[in-house]
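Q: Here's a chain of 155 amino acids. Please give me its 3D structure as tokens.
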Amino acid sequence: MKRNILIAILFLFSITLIIASCEQSGCSKSLVSSYNSNESKRMTGNCMNCHSPNGGAGAGCFRVGGTAFDSIPGDSAFSGAVVKLYTQPLGHGELVVSLPVDRSGNFYTTSPVSFGNGLYPAIVSKTGTRYMPNAAVTGSCNSCHGAINATIWAD
């Protein structure tokens, strides 16, 4: 009987620690980019380096995040566009998520996004739509774009 009580107490203590660590790292914060927001920072590199449970001081744990630019090589942030993720190439299939690009050129969400076998990104601006030809299997857009591939851009 005492052993069962001790096990129950240890279990509750463990759950409390897990919840507290998520709250301390900012993972419990719900965030989604918006057109007129200027709260995000335009940083170089992978957003998930700071916006993850093991990341730095970034608020929230992003499930999708990146930065859009007005051209290649990515000198100026591009705001006012929308990044969309579809289940099929070229904007076909189901639209899974639509993320506005904020004033800093950033788009992000902390909401869960199921990538399954991959989602097909598109960036939509006033002048048209650009499609990524390959499926993305992660929402860490800047881990490739701006690192080993061209920046995400719209014109």
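Q: Can you summarize the key feature?
A: Residues 48 and 86 are 21 Å apart (CA to CA).
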